[in-house]
């Protein structure tokens, strides 16, 4: 069984500790309203979860759902210790069908690099219900830090604990990709696109001419145009206009500068040309836009 976790998830660590199975309560029934992640710290641990029995070894993890009943079994055998953390997350974990794994786009080439576009791609992380970690010492080290952070309860300990849990889940999700051989490096064209988008985002008000882009990115302008269009669906020229108008809208709302001054500041020497582009993209003239804001 597998579960998916959104990149945009909000995590909250509730409790965490190291449990020794010599404690007689190990064989009692346990349940709680949160997700619970168990990782074996040493030895062998026998756990029964929803009438299914598991024998877990050092570095192996088991992910439990809210209110899922669990307890120890095989009292005749000496067992080890395990770390556990209870946490909530929003949105909730969703069951993931393994057949969809080949459809995962780990190296995302999306429009998230564009300042003018609101894209909330979730970028799912896949977490196996049960897994043997490929980096068990690192996993156990993170869990030890998490437990100590929760016990010390100093300063921003809950925030720190949440970051540690995020690292733990990322490590587990990375192990899943490696074990399934699903990891993928970003294509060269996407790296070029990111470099181009970064340059445009930072220098749109100055020189983003064909010659400058070719010199900075060491690629032919025609290739840069193809790559940008491929990953965004729009042109470099249009995106530069969007960036300038985005900045102009902020200046119209937050400053008392004249339309002419704003046009010059965002890279339009001709205020009439600026007004024409502004109306084309926004739907109203700059002054009308300013007057409509409270």
TrEMBL record:
<dbReference type="InterPro" id="IPR037923">
    <property type="entry name" value="HTH-like"/>
</dbReference>
<dbReference type="InterPro" id="IPR018062">
    <property type="entry name" value="HTH_AraC-typ_CS"/>
</dbReference>
<dbReference type="Pfam" id="PF02311">
    <property type="entry name" value="AraC_binding"/>
</dbReference>
<dbReference type="InterPro" id="IPR003313">
    <property type="entry name" value="AraC-bd"/>
</dbReference>
<dbReference type="Pfam" id="PF12833">
    <property type="entry name" value="HTH_18"/>
</dbReference>
<feature type="domain" description="HTH araC/xylS-type">
    <location>
        <begin position="194"/>
        <end position="292"/>
    </location>
</feature>
<protein>
    <submittedName>
        <fullName>Helix-turn-helix domain-containing protein</fullName>
    </submittedName>
</protein>
<dbReference type="InterPro" id="IPR020449">
    <property type="entry name" value="Tscrpt_reg_AraC-type_HTH"/>
</dbReference>
<dbReference type="InterPro" id="IPR018060">
    <property type="entry name" value="HTH_AraC"/>
</dbReference>
<dbReference type="InterPro" id="IPR009057">
    <property type="entry name" value="Homeodomain-like_sf"/>
</dbReference>
<dbReference type="GO" id="GO:0003700">
    <property type="term" value="F:DNA-binding transcription factor activity"/>
</dbReference>
<keyword id="KW-0805">Transcription regulation</keyword>
<dbReference type="GO" id="GO:0043565">
    <property type="term" value="F:sequence-specific DNA binding"/>
</dbReference>
<keyword id="KW-0804">Transcription</keyword>
<keyword id="KW-0238">DNA-binding</keyword>
<dbReference type="InterPro" id="IPR014710">
    <property type="entry name" value="RmlC-like_jellyroll"/>
</dbReference>
């Amino acid at each position: 069984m597998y579960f998916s976790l959104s990149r945009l998830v909000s995590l909250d660590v509730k409790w965490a500790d190291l449990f020794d199975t010599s404690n007689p309560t190990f064989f009692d029934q346990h349940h709680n309203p949160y997700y619970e992640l168990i990782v074996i710290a040493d030895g062998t641990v026998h756990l029964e979860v929803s009438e299914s029995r598991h024998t877990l070894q050092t570095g192996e993890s088991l992910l439990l759902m809210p209110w899922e009943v669990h307890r120890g079994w095989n009292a005749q055998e000496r067992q080890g210790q395990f770390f556990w953390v209870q946490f909530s997350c929003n949105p909730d974990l969703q069951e993931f069908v393994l057949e969809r794994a080949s459809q995962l786009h780990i190296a995302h080439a999306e429009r998230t690099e564009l300042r003018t576009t609101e894209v909330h791609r979730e970028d799912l992380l896949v977490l196996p219900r049960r897994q043997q970690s490929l980096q068990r010492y690192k996993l156990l080290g993170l869990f030890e830090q998490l437990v100590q952070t929760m016990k010390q309860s100093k300063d921003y300990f809950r925030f720190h604990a949440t970051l540690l849990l995020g690292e733990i889940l990322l490590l587990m999700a990375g192990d899943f990709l490696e074990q399934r051989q699903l990891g993928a490096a970003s294509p060269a064209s996407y790296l070029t696109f990111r470099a181009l988008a970064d340059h445009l985002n930072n220098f749109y008000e100055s020189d983003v001419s064909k010659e400058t882009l070719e010199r900075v990115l060491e690629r032919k302008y025609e290739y840069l145009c193809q790559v940008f269009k491929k990953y965004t669906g729009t042109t470099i020229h249009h995106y530069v206009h969007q960036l300038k108008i985005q900045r102009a809208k902020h200046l119209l709302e937050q400053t008392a500068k004249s339309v002419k001054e704003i046009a010059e500041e965002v890279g339009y020497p001709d205020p009439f040309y600026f007004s024409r582009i502004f109306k084309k993209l926004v739907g109203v003239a700059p002054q009308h836009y300013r007057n409509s804001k409270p």
